[in-house]
Design a protein that fits this description.
The structure holds two protein chains of two kinds. Chain A is α/β, with parallel strands linked by helices. Helices cover 66% and strands 9% of the residues of chain A. Chain A has 15 helices and five strands. In chain A, helix 3 links the parallel strand 1 and strand 2. Chain A is elongated. The two termini of chain A are 24 Å apart. In chain A, 41% of the residues are buried. Chain B is of the alpha/beta class. Helices cover 33% and strands 27% of the residues of chain B. In chain B, strand 7, helix 6 and strand 8 form a beta-alpha-beta unit. In chain B, helix 8 crosses helix 11. The two termini of chain B are 37 Å apart. The chains are: A alpha/beta, B alpha/beta. At the A-B interface, helix 1 and helix 9 of A face helix 3 of B.
Chain lengths: 364, 311
């Protein structure tokens, strides 16, 4: 046990002191997130798209519509309630305001001081898009403030309703995908130092000591798990703090998938190390494996829009399932495959790669 | 420290063979190493020294033959052997980003029983570099660290594979002192080298290897006197003098000549040199760097293989 931990600590020290490795694992995903985050955030001043459903059709409701238009902060899309909900689900509008039938009459009664309850307008938002929800209520609040003329009790009040949109905003989709990508890299990249250690005869030197092979592999697993978890904390932290990504799911499940993914990709790293004779060829092989995975796993391009051949590949590669699982668990993303299937596929890859490496890996 | 009793060998090798594809790396090797002995395998690169040593260390499986180390049959009990031996490999690039102390402590964690890191650092004169990362060490310091790691578990038997290759003369001498110190502290050492001088200085006994075979084995004196009762007269090669002419000089037993130098092995140095000087004077020549010396291991190797043993 002391040997296992001493070797793990030694590996971590070597890793942390290697600035290039540190950059690739920690800074690289962050650069990606910030880059895409700022591009798709589109700088806070952009308009909100509001679905506008007028079930009342009175001068009062038209006046309210004009008040929203006059605020300059929103672009209204007038339509029916069903259509508006459909549009919101697939991301065409950010929120919906429904003016219920009878609004005009209630407002008129309220203004005359003879009404009971104030008139309500229904506001649909998606709680997983917390930034957007805040912006919507800010606009609604300021418009209703004008309409109510500071009167107490207020004449019009918002009534909150939430729906789950399928189409996450880009950054919410991107953060878990980026975490999946990083976990993949931490695992596969293990091949490079492993092959280097073999080339430099470090593995042979260790073989001349009483150290067991399981201790060597175990220290590698521990170290990579730790790196993956640190990465997860950094990536998720930046997503939440800098881009307001709302984490909806269970944290233990996130950790579980990060750990399972790390092990599966580490096993794949050992497969690479089994076939790569030199550090350079290990470098090449990791690139050959990671780039197609990066682009075919649905991180940058949606899997539904891929041609059949690529979609078939996307259905096989482990990163598709890891990223999919992380999106489902973290931000309630639409499922490509059910969670249990994601777990099964990752375990399958882990077992298969471990089997290949167990047979093919050469220590010297 | 348990040492084999009554001089029974620490290492016993019989009929050892190992083949890599078409290359017969070790082609039937037999030798014994006695307790507290420094035993050397001497030969050029590719002679099969490293393969032989790695089989003894339990790092490679032999194709055939019997190998027993510290009374353990290596092909069955390598795991039992590893805590008792110390190993320094030919190329010792170890964890470039760790410091000297960290690497030593790491290796200490592999053994149930180990010497304190401070003691090893002191013994191998690495005190000034204890907090330096191993990648910035000089070649000599790196070799000393490799030896320190071989001594971490206070082993009975130490394997040193080409311990001084690539070192400058001063670093080489300091490492020699170290190896002699190992013997003085009661350890048995098996080392490989392709330096004649190193073998002459360090080894109690040695085996000359070439093409996977042991050509000759014994103490340095035995190896030399078995072949050369004569002394050698050497001088820089003179193209004008043929080997036949030199062979015909009085008392000359044999002649070795290459592009650089000529060696005349003679039973009577005075007679041979007198005749040589007469001959050269007649021709208006002058033998440069004329010297008389005893035969060396180099001569033995040259005689055994027909070629010089150089880097």
């Amino acid at each position: 046990m002391t040997a296992l931990f001493a070797l793990t600590v030694a590996n971590i020290k070597s890793y942390v002191r290697d600035r290039a490795a540190l950059f690739w694992t920690l800074a690289f995903p962050l650069i990606f997130i910030f880059m895409f985050g700022f591009i798709f955030q589109g700088g806070g001043g952009s308009e909100l798209n509001l679905g506008w459903v007028d079930a009342d059709g009175t001068p009062a409701s038209t006046q309210l519509r004009d008040a929203f238009t006059a605020s300059g902060a929103v672009k209204l899309v007038e339509t029916s309630e069903d259509d508006a909900l459909a549009q919101m689900r697939n991301g065409k509008v950010d929120s919906i305001i429904v003016v219920q039938k009878g609004y005009g009459a209630t407002v008129a009664a309220g203004a005359a001081g003879t009404g009971g309850a104030p008139a309500a307008i229904t506001v649909y938002t998606d709680p997983s898009r917390s930034n957007l929800t805040a912006s919507v209520y800010q606009v609604v609040g300021s418009v209703l403030g004008v309409v109510n003329l500071g009167g107490r009790p207020p004449i019009v009040v918002p009534e909150a309703k939430t729906i789950q949109t399928e189409n996450l905003n880009f950054i919410s989709y991107f953060v878990p995908s980026m975490l999946g990508l990083s976990v993949m890299q931490v695992g596969i990249f293990a091949a490079i130092p492993l092959v280097a250690d073999r080339e430099k005869l470090i593995l042979k030197r260790l073989a001349a000591t009483p150290l067991r092979r399981w201790q060597l592999v175990g220290s590698n697993v521990l170290m990579r798990l730790l790196i993956a978890l640190v990465q997860a904390v950094i990536i998720v932290g930046v997503g939440v703090l800098a881009f307001g990504v709302h984490i909806t799911g269970s944290l233990p499940l996130v950790v579980g998938f990060v750990a399972l993914g790390s092990m599966a990709f580490l096993a794949l790293g050992y497969v690479v190390a089994s076939f790569a004779g030199t550090e350079d060829s290990a470098n090449g092989m990791t690139s050959v494996i990671q780039f197609p995975m990066m682009f075919l796993s649905g991180t940058f391009f949606p899997i539904d829009q891929m041609p059949d051949v690529l979609r078939t590949i996307a259905r096989i590669i482990p990163l598709t399932y890891l990223s999919d699982a992380l999106r489902q668990v973290m931000v309630g993303g639409a499922a490509f495959a059910p969670l249990w299937l994601c777990a099964v596929v990752l375990v399958g890859w882990l077992v298969a790669c471990f089997g290949v490496a167990a047979v093919k890996f050469r220590w010297q | 420290m348990t040492v084999a009793i009554g001089g029974s060998p620490v290492i016993r090798v019989r009929g050892l063979t190992k083949r890599y594809g078409d290359v017969q790396a070790v082609a039937g090797v037999d030798f014994d190493v006695a307790p507290r002995e420094i035993f050397g395998l001497l030969g050029p690169n590719g002679a099969g020294k490293t393969t032989t040593v790695e089989i003894l260390e339990g790092l490679r499986a032999p194709d055939g033959g019997e190998v027993s180390v510290l009374g353990v049959d290596v092909s069955r009990g390598a795991d039992a052997l590893k805590p008792r031996i110390g190993v320094s490999l030919q190329t010792a690039a170890l964890y470039p980003k760790l410091t000297v102390t960290e690497v030593i402590d790491l290796f200490r964690s592999f053994y149930a029983r180990s010497r304190p890191a401070a003691e090893l650092i002191e013994a191998l004169d690495l005190g000034e570099r204890r907090n330096a990362q191993t990648r910035v060490l000089s070649g000599g310091q790196r070799q000393r660290l490799a030896v320190a790691l071989a001594l971490v578990n206070d082993p009975e038997l130490v394997f040193l594979d080409e311990p001084t290759t690539g070192l400058d003369p001063a670093a080489r001498r300091s490492l020699w002192d170290l190896v002699l110190g190992l013997k003085a502290s009661g350890r048995t050492v098996l080392l490989t080298t392709h330096y004649m001088e190193e073998a002459e200085v360090l080894c109690d006994r040695l085996a000359i290897m070439d093409h996977g075979r042991i050509l000759e084995m014994g103490t340095v004196d035995e190896l030399i006197s078995k072949r050369f009762h004569e002394r050698a007269v050497r001088f820089d090669r003179l193209e004008e003098l043929s080997v036949d002419e030199l062979q015909a000089l009085p008392e000359v037993v044999s002649v070795k000549a290459d592009a650089r130098e000529v060696l005349l092995y003679t039973r009577d140095v005075a007679a041979t040199i007198g005749a040589l000087l007469d001959l050269t004077e007649q021709r208006g020549l002058e033998p440069k760097n004329l010297a008389i010396r005893r035969a060396t291991l180099e001569d033995v190797f040259l005689d055994l293989t027909g070629r010089a043993l150089r880097d």
